[in-house]
Amino acid sequence: MNPWRKRLSWLAQAFGEREVSLRAAALAYYAFFSIFPLLLLTAAGLGYLVRLRAPFAVELEATVLEYATQTLATSGVGGTVGGLFSTLATSAPVIGLAGVLGLLWGISGSLSAVSLAMGQVFDPEAPLLDWKARLRAGGVILAIGGVFVLFTLGSQVLGVIARFIPVLATLEAPLRAVVNFLLPIPAFVLLYQLLPNRRPGWGAAVWGAVIGGVLFGGVQVGFGVYLRLVSFQTVFGPLASLAVLLLWLQFSSLAFLIGALFAAAMSPKNRAVAMGSRA
Fold it and tell me: Does the predicted model carry a pTM greater than 0.85?
């Protein structure tokens, strides 16, 4: 059999045996419950800035709200999110504390889900991560997540400044394109190489990250097109935004883990196994 056909056959078999779709659902679940504490912290922080009359604070709050509404992409959610932001911003101290506690809980669950998913996808027989490896994994995830947040906030700040300096408006779209399509690839390389207990090697991690990054970008584009054709509001009513967010997280997590599975297939150990047609 052709080597690539053997490898694809191994991938198809490993996808089911290593429970990739189930692990993606677990990642989506914990990511979902990490988003709301993050929303609380963001609203509380913006509330502080607005009350302190910091430069561009009002414009930044409006831009972040607009970005969140566009991301959820459901009709009628703008008013709900706007009211929520206004309420949270006026209760910044209490909401900020609740957001920190909730975010810590969500992150701890997310770290466990990511660690288990990486171990299951790359090598189900490998031992579970010890506490030192879990701390390292948590640091890697938080660092990469922080870079994502900085890039996202940077694009929003640029959008605010562009209102006063129109020539900068030409940079806003390219910056968001970098965040949405290019940044996931180096982030996935680091995650695929540093998180598993048995590392695949940088070459395999790069191959998997390219595939995972392309799939991740395809999910964003395809999901936007799909939402323009289907009315979730009609089916789910007031809960439409939650259903949309869960579905988006599920497919995004699946794209991430499929890339990880490709990286596992390209690792020296699994490459030999694939050539021998064993999963």
Answer: no
